[in-house]
UniProtKB/TrEMBL annotation:
Segments traversing the membrane: none
Organism in which the protein naturally occurs: Dactylosporangium darangshiense
Protein name: Lecithin:cholesterol acyltransferase
Pfam families per the UniProt record, alphabetical: LCAT
InterPro entries: AB_hydrolase_fold, LACT/PDAT_acylTrfase
Domain of life: Bacteria
Length: 487
């Protein structure tokens, strides 16, 4: 039965839905000047915006460090892709929002929650609690809500459905620490949330660098790469939000044993031990609760850094998870993950997860994930259903450093028996149109995607052929004459 104001004759969901982005996923604006500091059009990145001097505007200043916020405001969820070293790229949330708009009875039922991802997760969670309860109250007073409620068999009033990507899932988990909020949540859908952290956050503090060095034959790329690396390291070390992503599982491989990361380790690589200790204390509080109505979606089958070694102030990442077998011997295994978050770090006890072969940055735009989130939003009285299983699970490991437009580079593609079983395309993420193809070729037992970017900018490398939605990763290209100077 359709409702006046609803988008056609569709299943009517009476609940209030909020989309919570991950780290990097909100546009940030300088409140004094109105300048957009994060979330700029990809062409701005191509003009060399990603420098130490530009990133410096995102540093926490003394007032912010003391808890006096307001210099920077989050205005909306990303509408264009962004990219940083180590964290790689973050896709916009447009496809997810468009799909959700089609299943709510009125646009007032759907809200975005942009937040300043530089700040502590706990601070942003308190803001989310206020925004969520206000959104729910507004929607319950809306006349279309009453009509939708009457179509529900139980006639119940609206509750909250939160769909959170990456860091956003930590905010949602925090809501269970705030009195009165968890009782109003019907479902908390988390997409690739690092509940136990990720070692790439350590690499950001240590160097802002990729564990895979650029070839010496890429001098222009190396010049530009030093700028975001230096700027990324300096930025990361000031941001409590980054420290909240540090791994809380045993991740430091010492050869004959494995242990947890400590504040002293963070200090040894140049990080802030006070921020590290504060993040560890926060996670101890968070460990007491599980997100209300938890429905996790976890990216899988992607080459993923899981453990690390620290030596001489440097960090070496490894894809091998360390564990002890029944005889107490230390073993190593590759469980993969979503390219950023290891598989085990995204799992919480007691929650039935759905696993999809997708990269972290593109998880919230993958069609399988969008369909799954919409299904949970529309089906309040049924257990969540995973997507139709397919035969193959493709993994992708593209460069997480700039490449030179027009010059060849390669990415590793896993999960393929034969290169002919898949297709690889370079797509403009803004227009969503293919701009070039990449050749899949097996070399020394490994399938590579051999590609060139047509021009400087941010592009999506996309591999299709598994039966799931295509796996993709953002890649940034620079011009061959890029200037490496920076102040």
């Amino acid at each position: 039965m359709p409702i006046d104001g609803a988008p056609g004759d569709q299943w009517v969901n009476q609940d209030a839905i909020i989309v919570v982005p991950g780290i990097l996923g909100s546009e940030l604006v300088d409140t004094a000047t109105g300048d957009v500091l994060w979330g700029l059009h990809p062409s701005v990145f191509a003009r060399g915006w990603l420098t130490a001097s530009n990133l410096r505007r995102l540093h926490l200043d003394d007032d912010e460090r003391a808890g006096r916020y307001g210099r920077i405001a989050a205005t909306r969820l990303l509408r264009a892709p962004v990219w940083l070293p180590v964290l790689r790229g973050q896709e916009p949330y447009t496809d997810l929002l468009d799909a959700l708009h089609k299943v709510v009875p009125h646009p007032a039922a759907l809200a975005e929650f942009p937040y300043d991802w530089r700040l502590p997760v706990e601070h942003n969670a308190a803001r989310l609690a206020e925004a969520a309860m206000a959104h729910l109250e507004r929607w319950r007073r809306h006349p279309v809500h009453d009509a939708a409620r009457r179509l529900d068999p139980a006639g119940r009033p609206a509750r909250l459905v939160l769909i959170a990507h990456s860091m956003g899932g930590l905010l949602v988990r925090c809501l269970s620490l705030i009195a009165g909020v968890a009782d109003e949540i019907r479902a908390g859908i988390t997409l690739g949330t690092p509940f136990y952290g990720a070692v790439r956050a350590v690499a950001m503090l240590a160097s802002g660098d990729s564990p895979v060095p650029l070839p010496a034959t890429r001098p222009a790329s190396a010049l530009l790469r030093r700028r975001p690396d230096r700027g990324m390291r300096a930025l990361s070390r000031t941001l409590p939000g980054v420290y909240d992503l540090l791994p809380t599982y045993q991740c430091v491989d010492e050869g004959t044993g494995v242990r947890g990361l400590t504040a002293d380790d963070v200090a040894a690589i140049g990080g802030d031990p006070e921020l590290a200790a504060a993040a560890a204390a926060f996670h101890r509080r968070l460990a007491r609760v599980t997100p209300a109505g938890h429905r996790p979606v976890i990216g899988s089958d992607q080459p993923t850094a899981t453990n690390l070694r620290i030596a001489g102030g440097t960090v070496e990442l490894s894809p091998l998870e360390c564990y002890h077998d029944a005889d107490g011997r230390m073993r190593r295994r590759d469980r993969q993950g979503d390219g950023t978050v290891p598989l085990g770090a995204a799992q919480l006890p007691g929650a039935e997860a759905t696993y999809l072969p997708q990269q972290h940055g593109g998880l919230a735009r993958a069609s399988d994930v969008v369909r799954h989130a919409v299904h949970i939003a529309r089906e309040p009285d049924r257990d969540h259903l995973g997507p139709t299983l397919a035969a193959g699970r493709i993994g992708l490991d593209a460069p997480d450093h700039p490449v030179v437009a027009g010059e060849p580079w390669s990415a590793v593609v896993t999960g393929l028996e034969h290169p002919a079983d898949a297709t690889c395309t370079i797509v403009d993420p803004v227009t969503k149109q293919p701009v070039a193809s990449a050749k899949l070729e097996r070399r020394d037992g490994v399938v590579h995607a051999l590609a060139r970017l047509p021009e400087p900018g941010i592009f999506r490398l996309q591999v299709a052929g598994s039966g799931y939605s295509p796996v993709s990763q953002l890649v940034v290209g620079i011009s061959a004459d890029a200037d490496g100077a920076d102040d």
